[in-house]
Amino acid sequence: MLEVKNLCKNFGPLEIICGIDLQVAEGQRHAIIGPNGAGKTTFFNLLSGNYKPSSGEIYFKGQKISNLQPHQINRLGLGRSFQITNVFPGLSVLENVRSVVLSRHGIRFNFFRTVERMAAINQESMEILEQIGLAERAGHLAGEMAYGEQRALEIGLVLASNPEMVLLDEPTAGMSVDETREAVKLVDRVTQGKTLMIIEHDMEVVFTLADVITVINYGQVLASGPPDEIRNHPKVKEAYLGTGASC
Amino acid sequence: MTRRALTNWLLLAAGLVVMAVMPALVSEYNLNMVVTILIYSLFALSFNILFGQAGLLSFGHAAYFGVGAYTSVILFKMAGFSLLPGILGASVAGGILGLLLGIFVVRLNGTYFALLTLAFNALLYAGAEKWRGLTGGEDGVAAMRPDLYIPGLGDVGMFSTLHWYYFVLIVVLLSTLFCWHFTKTPLGRLNECLRENEDRARFIGYNVYASQVVVNIISAFFAGLAGGLAGAFQEFVTVTFINLDKASEVLIMTFVGGSGTFWGPILGVSFLTYLNQWLSDLTEHWTLIQGIIFVALVMYAPQGLSGLLISVKDRLLGARAARMATAKETR
Amino acid sequence: MDILAALPVQALHGLVYGMLLFLVASGLTLIFGMMGVLNFAHGALYMLGAYFSYTVLQLTGQFWLCLLVAPLVVGLAGMIIERFFLRRVHVFGHAHELLLTFGMAYIIEELVKIFWGNEPLRVVLPPILAGSVPLLGIEYPVYRLFILGVSLLVFVLMFLVLYKTRAGIIVRAAVANTRMVNALGFNVPLVFLLLFGMGAWLAGLAGVIGGPYLITNPGMASTIIIDLFVVVVVGGLGSIQGALIASLLIGQLQSIGIMILPQFAMFFEFLLMALVLIFRPQGLMGESK
Fold first, then answer.
1. pLDDT given for residue C72 in this prediction
2. Where are the domains of chain B?
3. What's the domain range around A13?
4. Is A113's CB within 8 Å of B185's CB?
5. Which of A71, A81, A86, A105 should be substituted to probe chain B, the one whose Cβ sees the most B Cβ atoms within 10 Å?
6. Fewer CB within 10 Å: N-end or C-end of chain B?
7. How far is Cα C252 from Cα C244, in angstroms, rounded to an integer?
């Protein structure tokens, strides 16, 4: 589904990403972990088209996407959430989701029909709200909701574009233990049948969800493999915990 | 229908009735003032499509207005256009200009957008001043208000204030209706999404650039329309229609009225027009007062008069229930 | 008129105007670079300098006193604007700050018209500055050379302060990275206040010396603000070197451009701005984001 070859990204003299090789199979749940500043979010930015690679290639479903615009990549079926909540604060929750649904249906330049009359669109939007548990909050302004609810909305926005592959950037950031548990259930539920790539710091989440874990440090892949392998990998232990510690 | 919606409909109906019988209620002088308010309300509405809705601050909206004004008068004078085609030509000219400038400036961030629109307006002003052959330079260009040709009815003379009033009223009402409807369409909603979070809109699959250009064209179209009406109204257009003062004027009127609601700009135009009228009898320094009001609002009530009225109404009516996204908080 | 023969003189005119423009633009670009706000009122501050100078001249008859006093008053006005007005709207964002400075410019222009009237004012220069000297084949006005001299002097002083003093280093650091400077413990609000005041002082000084040359009138703010914006865009925000290059460029564009194609001076400026924004949006000397 996703193939990354020798990806590099510099900002001037600063090399953030150097030589990442990665494959993600269809339906796989792939976790990206690594210390802060390792380049994980930059990696996501490269995948979703926010940044252009300095060198290397990215292939999605066999197609080269390294030089495409973010909206084009999204339309191909790659959806992405953000580490810092990135919704439309001044609009209602329903409107937030609806905007994605409209885009997905290709209704972008229409200035003749009113949105309220589009029954199918509204219904689909409400269904998504139900999936993420925000149906009751449909009329509230997104910017005025509790943090956990905003994170759920964040996931809802990704979901609404019905992507084949989902990139989630630290979906449980800043959440309490209970909230995290709910979030994991949510992620599990909504990503059934999709390919998932998730950046996470919470190891429990990672080990619960992931089929494959890739560890990134200093912009390079340190190790990649199934959870057990990573758990016992010496280099990983060193990078995260210092040698001698156990998971 | 909710009680709130019913109240709004009744208010609207009452307003329309008043507008319809206005000629019977006021003097000719005041009727002309209402015409001015109608035209500038349309101008301000077009400005707010960018400012309040898209979140794009333009310091040069008089570019479209002025080009519209010149176009209509020049078409009347030099090509013998009748009223409606001339006004239409003005709108189209505005729209084309909106395309030409839009493809270039909508990519820029807020401050640069403001700068470039200002510079472009200044450029057009300089052009209007110098291209005497076309625009008459400082002397301007004049043309009598042509008849309105209605198929089936023939020519309707527009010299009478009465006829002219109804013409402007209908044109502005229809345009306002379109602009209102626009805010409820997918593109109109997208426009507001772009104000809230442009980056996210990209990740959702929207071609932000193309959308903003289209919105710019629509805004410019109606500004040009307003300009065309203004030109036909005065029967004379000069560089004051396209100068930076005119651009400042529409900005101030829209902001004072409140850019966060649809009708805020209309309120701003009405309020300031009457205020200016009243103040200019009292003192010659009324523009200073206007400036002070503006700065005071920027600092203490950026949601403008319409926002203030809504706050007051909320407080009077009690509970501030969860509002739908139609009650936006203005920046 | 033989264009080639007139070229050196026109170039000199352009240099004079360019340096004057730099004087005003330097403050504007530093403020823009450091505070992120484009001070719409900068042209109005320049205008205030010219008008205050006129009044001081009326009262005392000493032009040298004007040079001293007027810019200080304008600098003070700038600090008042920053401290009591701009600072309050900072939380609302850049668009708001822009609207505020726009409103300030509007108010200042109206106040000027109220206190000094709508007509252009004539400033009587001291005899030393009022004459002309033979230069480049014509009688060149001494006053313009005076403008050039003052501008160059201020430029050198500015350069020395910015690059050789500790305060200057702080300012340059703050322009490059405000948050870092704050984290290092410097009183950023104070730096903002002083920088704004400094920018206003420069603009006021430019107004004092520019007024007699470019005519002291209520429209002088609007006239210069476009050129100022072009300089900031072309030079790159926050860059003094950029502002210098851009100002000199605009100066030449204005004087030689007007000579060759009088109808198109404004167009060339706009074209320049457009080209820069397309090909090098950070400005000639700005840093790419």
1. 94
2. 25-243
3. 2-241
4. yes
5. A71
6. N
7. 12
